[in-house]
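[09:14] KT: can someone run the structure on this one? pasting the chain below
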Amino acid sequence: MADIKDPENTILMELKGGTVTIELLPDVAPQHVERMKTLARAGAYDNVAFHRVIDGFMAQTGDVQHGNMEKDYNPRGAGTGSSEHPDVPAEFSKIPHARGSLGAARSANPNSANSQFFINFKDNDFLNGQYTVYGQVTSGMEHVDALTKGEPPANPDRMISVKVAADA
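[09:31] RB: done, C-alpha coordinates below
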Protein backbone atom coordinates (compact mmCIF):
# COMPACT_ATOMS: atom_id res chain seq x y z
CA MET A 1 0.00 0.00 0.00
CA ALA A 2 1.13 3.53 -0.71
CA ASP A 3 2.49 5.78 2.00
CA ILE A 4 -0.60 7.65 3.22
CA LYS A 5 0.25 11.26 4.13
CA ASP A 6 -3.26 12.47 4.95
CA PRO A 7 -5.66 9.64 5.92
CA GLU A 8 -8.63 12.05 6.14
CA ASN A 9 -8.13 12.95 2.46
CA THR A 10 -7.21 9.54 1.09
CA ILE A 11 -9.65 7.05 -0.46
CA LEU A 12 -9.10 3.28 -0.40
CA MET A 13 -11.02 1.71 -3.27
CA GLU A 14 -11.17 -2.06 -3.25
CA LEU A 15 -11.34 -3.62 -6.73
CA LYS A 16 -11.25 -7.31 -7.68
CA GLY A 17 -7.49 -7.10 -8.27
CA GLY A 18 -6.61 -5.19 -5.11
CA THR A 19 -6.63 -1.79 -3.45
CA VAL A 20 -6.44 1.51 -5.31
CA THR A 21 -5.20 4.39 -3.13
CA ILE A 22 -6.41 7.85 -4.16
CA GLU A 23 -5.02 11.04 -2.68
CA LEU A 24 -7.76 13.66 -2.66
CA LEU A 25 -7.03 17.35 -3.33
CA PRO A 26 -9.04 19.36 -0.77
CA ASP A 27 -7.05 22.54 -1.46
CA VAL A 28 -7.96 22.33 -5.16
CA ALA A 29 -11.58 21.10 -5.12
CA PRO A 30 -12.92 21.12 -1.54
CA GLN A 31 -16.58 20.57 -2.44
CA HIS A 32 -15.86 17.57 -4.68
CA VAL A 33 -13.56 16.06 -2.04
CA GLU A 34 -16.21 16.54 0.65
CA ARG A 35 -18.88 14.88 -1.55
CA MET A 36 -16.68 11.84 -2.23
CA LYS A 37 -15.91 11.42 1.46
CA THR A 38 -19.60 11.83 2.41
CA LEU A 39 -20.68 9.15 -0.07
CA ALA A 40 -17.79 6.82 0.85
CA ARG A 41 -18.63 7.12 4.55
CA ALA A 42 -22.29 6.34 3.80
CA GLY A 43 -21.25 3.18 1.89
CA ALA A 44 -22.94 4.60 -1.22
CA TYR A 45 -20.04 3.66 -3.55
CA ASP A 46 -19.85 0.02 -2.40
CA ASN A 47 -20.76 -2.42 -5.21
CA VAL A 48 -21.18 0.36 -7.79
CA ALA A 49 -20.34 -0.67 -11.36
CA PHE A 50 -17.74 0.82 -13.69
CA HIS A 51 -20.40 1.52 -16.32
CA ARG A 52 -18.15 3.16 -18.93
CA VAL A 53 -14.58 1.93 -19.42
CA ILE A 54 -12.91 3.16 -22.60
CA ASP A 55 -9.51 1.64 -23.36
CA GLY A 56 -6.83 4.31 -23.66
CA PHE A 57 -9.13 6.97 -22.18
CA MET A 58 -10.81 6.51 -18.80
CA ALA A 59 -12.92 4.37 -16.44
CA GLN A 60 -16.17 5.93 -15.15
CA THR A 61 -18.16 4.89 -12.07
CA GLY A 62 -19.99 6.38 -9.13
CA ASP A 63 -23.64 6.25 -10.19
CA VAL A 64 -24.98 5.52 -6.71
CA GLN A 65 -28.59 5.72 -7.94
CA HIS A 66 -28.53 3.13 -10.77
CA GLY A 67 -25.09 1.50 -10.55
CA ASN A 68 -25.23 -0.56 -7.34
CA MET A 69 -24.83 -4.13 -8.56
CA GLU A 70 -26.33 -5.52 -5.34
CA LYS A 71 -29.37 -3.23 -5.13
CA ASP A 72 -31.64 -2.04 -7.95
CA TYR A 73 -28.87 -2.29 -10.57
CA ASN A 74 -29.99 -0.83 -13.89
CA PRO A 75 -27.37 -1.38 -16.62
CA ARG A 76 -29.27 0.86 -19.06
CA GLY A 77 -29.63 3.61 -16.48
CA ALA A 78 -26.12 3.36 -15.04
CA GLY A 79 -24.39 6.61 -15.84
CA THR A 80 -27.55 8.71 -15.67
CA GLY A 81 -28.02 8.87 -11.90
CA SER A 82 -26.66 10.80 -8.97
CA SER A 83 -26.99 10.89 -5.18
CA GLU A 84 -29.64 12.49 -2.99
CA HIS A 85 -27.29 15.43 -2.45
CA PRO A 86 -27.37 18.60 -4.60
CA ASP A 87 -24.99 18.93 -7.55
CA VAL A 88 -21.52 20.31 -6.91
CA PRO A 89 -20.38 23.43 -8.79
CA ALA A 90 -17.30 23.17 -11.00
CA GLU A 91 -13.96 23.68 -9.25
CA PHE A 92 -11.65 24.01 -12.25
CA SER A 93 -7.92 24.33 -11.62
CA LYS A 94 -4.56 24.11 -13.35
CA ILE A 95 -4.18 20.47 -12.24
CA PRO A 96 -3.97 18.43 -15.47
CA HIS A 97 -6.01 15.35 -16.34
CA ALA A 98 -2.92 13.15 -16.10
CA ARG A 99 -2.78 9.36 -15.92
CA GLY A 100 -4.40 8.26 -12.67
CA SER A 101 -6.14 11.57 -11.99
CA LEU A 102 -9.70 11.56 -10.67
CA GLY A 103 -12.14 13.72 -12.60
CA ALA A 104 -15.72 14.69 -11.81
CA ALA A 105 -18.18 13.30 -14.34
CA ARG A 106 -21.03 15.64 -15.26
CA SER A 107 -23.56 16.52 -17.94
CA ALA A 108 -23.07 19.37 -20.42
CA ASN A 109 -23.64 21.76 -17.51
CA PRO A 110 -20.25 22.35 -15.78
CA ASN A 111 -22.03 22.67 -12.42
CA SER A 112 -23.80 19.30 -12.61
CA ALA A 113 -21.22 17.00 -10.98
CA ASN A 114 -22.70 14.89 -8.21
CA SER A 115 -21.52 11.35 -7.39
CA GLN A 116 -19.95 10.08 -10.61
CA PHE A 117 -16.26 10.27 -11.38
CA PHE A 118 -13.67 8.88 -13.74
CA ILE A 119 -10.05 7.79 -13.53
CA ASN A 120 -7.86 8.66 -16.51
CA PHE A 121 -5.93 5.78 -18.10
CA LYS A 122 -3.54 8.25 -19.75
CA ASP A 123 -2.85 11.97 -19.91
CA ASN A 124 -6.04 13.50 -21.33
CA ASP A 125 -5.01 17.15 -21.64
CA PHE A 126 -8.04 17.97 -23.82
CA LEU A 127 -10.14 17.68 -20.60
CA ASN A 128 -8.08 20.31 -18.77
CA GLY A 129 -10.22 23.22 -17.59
CA GLN A 130 -13.39 21.35 -18.67
CA TYR A 131 -13.81 18.87 -15.81
CA THR A 132 -12.85 19.20 -12.15
CA VAL A 133 -9.80 17.21 -11.02
CA TYR A 134 -10.00 16.31 -7.35
CA GLY A 135 -7.74 13.33 -6.76
CA GLN A 136 -4.77 11.28 -7.94
CA VAL A 137 -4.18 7.52 -7.78
CA THR A 138 -0.96 7.01 -5.79
CA SER A 139 -0.94 3.19 -5.88
CA GLY A 140 -2.93 0.38 -7.46
CA MET A 141 -3.32 1.92 -10.93
CA GLU A 142 -2.64 -1.53 -12.37
CA HIS A 143 -6.02 -2.61 -10.90
CA VAL A 144 -7.76 0.25 -12.73
CA ASP A 145 -5.93 -0.70 -15.95
CA ALA A 146 -7.29 -4.27 -15.59
CA LEU A 147 -10.98 -3.23 -15.48
CA THR A 148 -13.28 -4.84 -18.07
CA LYS A 149 -13.69 -2.45 -21.01
CA GLY A 150 -16.96 -1.42 -22.67
CA GLU A 151 -19.71 1.21 -22.86
CA PRO A 152 -21.18 -0.48 -20.88
CA PRO A 153 -19.03 -3.57 -20.30
CA ALA A 154 -20.97 -6.81 -20.82
CA ASN A 155 -19.88 -7.95 -17.34
CA PRO A 156 -18.83 -4.78 -15.55
CA ASP A 157 -16.39 -4.66 -12.69
CA ARG A 158 -17.41 -2.87 -9.51
CA MET A 159 -15.98 -0.95 -6.62
CA ILE A 160 -16.23 -3.63 -3.94
CA SER A 161 -15.77 -1.04 -1.22
CA VAL A 162 -14.73 2.61 -0.97
CA LYS A 163 -13.50 3.98 2.34
CA VAL A 164 -11.81 7.09 3.69
CA ALA A 165 -8.41 5.86 4.94
CA ALA A 166 -8.94 7.56 8.32
CA ASP A 167 -11.93 5.23 8.86
CA ALA A 168 -10.33 2.02 7.57
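[09:33] KT: thanks! The beta strands are 10-15, 18-24, 48-49, 52-54, 58-61, 101-104, 117-120, 133-139, 158-159, 161-164.
[09:34] RB: yep, looked fine to me
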